[in-house]
Write a structure and sequence with these properties.
The chain has 239 residues and is of the alpha/beta class. The protein has a single domain, classed as Rossmann fold. It is 24% helix and 26% strand. The protein is built from 8 helices and 10 strands. Helix 6 links the parallel strand 4 and strand 5. Helix 4 packs parallel to helix 5. The C terminus is likely disordered.
Length: 239
């Protein structure tokens, strides 16, 4: 099987033309609340009651429509706290409306982009389906969380494969849980509270953009890894 590196994958029509998040809103049948099981505005409001500034990062944000909605709602709902929102997407198809100073929309790759600080909330609505190094992205995002920050994303563990094409399966979910993530297999959501230095014992090999539809019915990307115990915390500690 011919696997794609990040540059080739990001030029793939499956990834570049992905319409999953283009017009997604905060609420409704296709909104962030339904897909993540989280009321984003309630989360920001609650955190705003305890902090002077609340920061939200949305990975693979599409047009940024939901983020624009959040900025408008935050003025009334954050209880006086400043809400800063950053949206990152591979394709520059952002909403055409003028962007307020509280919202930053960035064109870039989730595997390369580096933020300028930590975040109280990090979300990724169905975006990981189109990322090559899914595990590396989760590990990086965990390091961007504030001390009591929350990371939540749609994640299909079935899309993470061994070099021979078989799913990594329960061994991966067990390792993710061991390193502080929670995984809801029935809803295909992964979450984490608080930052951490994540060292998963897998080495990324490349991606397959011809994997076909996943559970959403949309074409997605399979990510391939080989087991590499030398990257695990126990091995690095000499155990």
């Amino acid at each position: 099987m011919w696997l794609l590196g990040d540059d080739a994958l990001e030029r793939s029509t499956v990834v570049a033309n992905c319409a999953m998040n283009r017009e997604r809103s905060l609420s409704g049948s296709n909104g962030y609340g339904r897909e993540l099981g989280l009321d984003v505005m309630a989360e920001l409001t609650d955190r705003g009651a305890r902090s002077a500034c609340v920061r939200w990062l949305d990975l693979c944000c599409g047009s940024g429509r939901a983020l624009s909605e959040a900025v408008r709602l935050a003025a009334d709902g954050a209880r006086g706290a400043r809400v800063e929102i950053v949206g990152l997407d591979l394709v520059d198809h952002f909403v055409a409306d003028s962007v307020p100073p509280e919202l930053q929309l960035v064109t870039g790759s989730v595997t390369e982009w580096v933020p300028d600080g930590r975040f109280d909330l990090i979300t990724c609505v169905h975006g990981l389906h189109y990322v090559g190094d899914k595990l590396g992205t989760l590990a990086r995002a965990a390091g961007w969380l504030a001390e009591d920050g929350l990371l939540i994303a749609n994640f299909d563990v079935h899309s993470v494969r061994r070099a021979d094409g078989t799913p990594v399966g329960r061994g991966l979910t067990a390792e993710l849980r061991r390193q502080g993530f929670a995984y809801d297999a029935s809803r295909r959501r992964i979450s984490r509270h608080g930052p951490g230095e994540i060292r998963l014992p897998y080495r990324y090999l490349g991606a397959d953009d011809k994997a076909g539809p996943n559970y959403t019915g949309q074409s997605a990307v399979h990510s391939f890894y080989e087991h590499d115990p030398s990257t695990s915390p126990a091995c690095r500690a000499g155990h």
